[in-house]
Amino acid sequence: MANKHHVYWYRHHIVNIIMIVDSKTSDWILIDTGLFYSEAFILKKIRRVLGELIPPKAIILTHGHFDHVGALRPLLQRFPNVPVYAHELELPFLTGQRHYVKPDPSVPGGLMAKLAWLYPYHAYDFSRIICPLPDDGTLPFFTDWRWIHTPGHTEGHVSLFRPSDRFLIAGDAFTTVKQESLLSVLAQKKEIHGPPAYFTPDWELAKTSVETLQKLEPAFAVTGHGQMMEGSSLHSGLKRLISQFEQVAVPDHGRYVPE
């Protein structure tokens, strides 16, 4: 069971699904919902962690890409009264008002990038149930956690941070696997990379967001893709990513790469 300090994370094919649990009460929140067929996987993990199928107090979306909101609708059919939260700037993409940028299969890096033309990018409509995250920066029901606006990969992307133990849930602000490469995804080779290049339209903001997270000096990091990293490997990896961002994160060419 992949967990540390009452944060549980599980990889479902290409993406991580995360649970934050209150060990005293068994209250918990779900961070992102994986792919469109991830519901059964998530329910299995809920039972494994909690011993029974307890609804989450809330679902928090780091952003609204297809591999992070895929199972949201079936989960809400099962848990109809659970509130869903995202950053205010992400709401247009989650209420049917705006589509995301088209994924860019021309970026280099491997087969996952080449297949990007297949990835859904159209807006979802969860307007009846989705809410903006609180203005005070806290997470609903888990006020020892804070949300941090980390745009670049999407306009309203957020990461989550618990200051008490410096635990970071980065979403796709950075990753710990080269997500553009199918071989790297299958092998889960642990190394810090930028956000998935085929779905990132603003590289200047993306770098600023990584710098914001690095300044928090996280002790542990779980990302949307890849394995958990901690300690010196996390610190050195983030430092390297920032110092070489234009070389190791920004594609040499692509639809959203500055001339």
UniProtKB/TrEMBL annotation:
Chain ranges of the Metallo-beta-lactamase domain: 14-225
Stored SUPFAM superfamilies: Metallo-hydrolase/oxidoreductase
Gene3D superfamilies: Ribonuclease Z/Hydroxyacylglutathione hydrolase-like (3.60.15.10)
PANTHER family in UniProt: METALLO-BETA-LACTAMASE DOMAIN-CONTAINING (PTHR42951), METALLO-BETA-LACTAMASE DOMAIN-CONTAINING PROTEIN (PTHR42951:SF17)
UniProt protein name: BH2193 protein
Source organism per UniProt: Halalkalibacterium halodurans (strain ATCC BAA-125 / DSM 18197 / FERM 7344 / JCM 9153 / C-125)
Source lineage: Bacteria, Bacillati, Bacillota, Bacilli, Bacillales
